[in-house]
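sry for the spam today, last one i promise. struct tokens for design, 192 residues
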């Protein structure tokens, strides 16, 4: 672990690996360790807030996905819409991007160009992350969440599945990501 830490460019570590290394640094060296201070300096590489209130993630569906995870994480440390300017800005960003049908849609080229680009249509996956983000933030107006949930429910198929929509993102600007929205049913096995 220490070898990887010393010999790996921090920019290339995945966010989960970063968190894991920080936990190990605390466990091995304590909260005041030099190693933990070095890690803390690089956290913003993985998750940073934009001027518009959004978070851009270098993985997956950059804007709604990263903003969802950021707001969920901030909720875990006590930040909410009522006590955090960053959360308020993020909520206004998400609400401002909500489409007329109540959904959200981020075009995958947003990941490549590092700027928010609306998709022509809303997407279930983006809508779910935006709605969850607003819920985690404690957004005071329930209307955007309700409208998003109505879109999600309206697109669910009679068999419980959702159809695959557009590509939702690009992982590390190199390959496309699609999330299957399916419901699986347990199969009953019988001994003959």
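last one done:
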């Amino acid at each position: 672990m220490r070898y990887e830490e010393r010999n790996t460019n921090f920019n290339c570590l995945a966010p989960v690996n970063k968190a894991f290394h920080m936990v190990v640094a605390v466990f091995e060296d304590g909260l005041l360790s030099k190693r933990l201070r070095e890690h803390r300096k690089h956290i913003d590489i993985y998750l940073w807030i934009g001027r518009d209130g959004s978070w851009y993630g270098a993985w997956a569906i950059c804007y709604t996905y990263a903003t969802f995870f950021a707001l969920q994480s901030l909720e875990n440390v006590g930040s909410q819409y009522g006590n955090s300017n960053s959360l308020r800005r993020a909520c206004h960003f998400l609400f401002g991007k909500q489409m007329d049908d109540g959904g959200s849609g981020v075009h995958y080229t947003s990941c490549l160009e590092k700027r928010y680009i609306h998709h022509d249509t809303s997407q279930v996956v983006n809508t779910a992350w935006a709605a969850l983000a607003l819920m985690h933030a404690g957004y005071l107006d329930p209307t955007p969440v309700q409208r998003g949930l109505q879109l999600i429910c309206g697109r669910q198929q009679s068999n419980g599945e959702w159809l695959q929509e557009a590509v939702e993102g690009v992982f590390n600007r190199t390959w496309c990501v699609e999330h299957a929205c399916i419901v699986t049913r347990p199969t009953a096995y019988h001994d003959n």
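The CA atoms of residues 31 and 37 lie 9 Å apart. ok im logging off now
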